[in-house]
Give the backbone structure.
Amino acid sequence: MTSSTAPRTLYDKIFDDHIVDRQEDGTCLLYIDRHLVHEVTSPQAFEGLRMTGRKVRAPEKTLAVVDHNIPTTDRKAGIAEEESRIQVEALAKNAKDFGVEYFNELDIRQGIVHIVGPEQGFTLPGTTIVCGDSHTSTHGAFGALAHGIGTSEVEHVLATQTLIQKKAKNMLVQVDGALAKGVTAKDVTLAIIGEIGTAGGTGSVIEYAGEAIRALSMEGRMTVCNMSIEGGARAGMIAPDEKAFTYLNGRPKAPKGAAWDEAMRYWETLRTDEGAHFDRIVKLDAANLPPIVSWGTSPEDVISVAGSVPNPDDIAEETKRSSKWRALDYMGLKPGTRMTEIPLDVIWIGSCTNGRIEDLRAVAKIVEGKKIAGSLDYAMIVPGSGLVKQQAEEEGLDKIFLAAGFEWREPGCSMCLGMNPDQLKPGQRAASTSNRNFEGRQGFKGRTHLVSPQMAAAAALAGHFVDVRQMG
Amino acid sequence: MQPFTTLTSTPAPLKVINVDTDMIIPKQYLKTIKRTGLGTALFAEMRYNEDGAENPDFVLNQPAYRKSEILVAGDNFGCGSSREHAPWALLDFGIRCVISTSFADIFYNNCFKNGILPIVVSPEDLEKLFDDADRGSNATLTVDLAKQEIKGPDGGTVTFDIDPFRKHCLLNGLDDIGLTMEKAPKIDAFEAKLAKRAWA
């Protein structure tokens, strides 16, 4: 065990502070401070509690919200799709029966669970946060230890407010230098995944540091931590600073008054000590990063917008080579095709990666007074939460989007995973601000290119990818 | 949870890297509020054609592998979403052991909660196991968890590492929640300490 005087990483500190019990083999029981629950991965967990006569141990540390399968059209008339409706009704009933606070589909505070947590101040530095969703890593932007869990673990946390955990490895991703104009947090995270591969962070918790990370807004930091899982790491985190504290101060569930002051004294200690050990260090120079587009069916399949589709025959290893050919076949692309020459059918802007107010402002700035390309089937914007939607409308962004030809929807996960009616049709090709370009992810045989909101906005106007660095 | 001790089966080869959980079970099957009955949805988009008929090229549709209980797959199996529907679908289909060079963390963890054994082997051993699997019904593998070894059709063995606590739980089919509940006094004590923090 680490002695208290040895230098520790941010992850070490939060992990150590939450150990309830430690077995001889290093298996720990870790206390969980915050548990977010949504409709898709929780019904079986609540059912398990019922079958065993167990209660939710700490309902006040649990927050439920619907996001994954709800339609993004007007929901006042109810949910037409029967299975989705049953799942949503099950969450409402489970929340009521077990005494858990619940934001339903008509609540202004409803939204994608990873946007709601920070927005409500439910997400706090130094806490352990879990949710039955892999993008829980988002909350690490505030210096929380946050990661996704399966449904059995959801039940475990509901029943015991703890998780059985072994310490992961420490990995540092340091991004120094300044980003070029038009290059965003999304490009940083895609570049990192391209560098380390989708299994690069397996078994590790990533801490992001360096001047380019510090320079990011909280929204940008959430984008980076969000996609840690696409690099294989269950959790990503950034030491909290003044930006994080300012973001949280005054949020409904954040501590107030003397409690805030006490919290601040602790939060200010939440940084990696000088000389702390990292098992792996990866360094990137922000100044060299271009806007990035994915070309395949894994988030590691990325390239500069100024580049071309790579040739899988350049890969020596057989299974990897055949897998990348399979990806190109699925995507309907040929090696050597310039990324800017790929015509698009759909533009989708939203998700827990890029559905926050700053993302929408960036899109509005590019599309204001312009029209989306006539060659597109459609372009859709889905705000990450009811409060993001309200804020955008107060700023008049909705009018800019509608005038440009975008659809402006109700908040939810929507086409990021296509559990609701928002899905790509077979063969349709989308520029998407979401996080996964897996086969079938956004719709059966749909083709996804992952990009930043700025790149999606510029592509919406042109009907194909354009290098945002070359725009006025 | 059903204990896992030994398992003998024809292994099915899935020579694809980064098999993600969307591939293992596509989202349209996540709207269930039950854990059971997901076997027909396993690998649905690779396993069935658009008209719903079986795709004869997909490994689990081939006669030798239709009853395989062991899957041998490319690197980084189970990446992506945290959906436990992925191991539920594997289990319901009948697969109780997956062998690869690496697994995504959340999927790996979810397997142990459902009596599925994920085994990590070296790239060289994976190639050997792919070769065995290519022999179809002429070859079987025997996985012995207690001995931490895989016995091949020609008598060769591959040994593997596994966390001792996970091994113990899997061998005995132990329920995690029950084990943790026994530590309730420690959780109470931790919460009493937390209560002194005004903000937590």
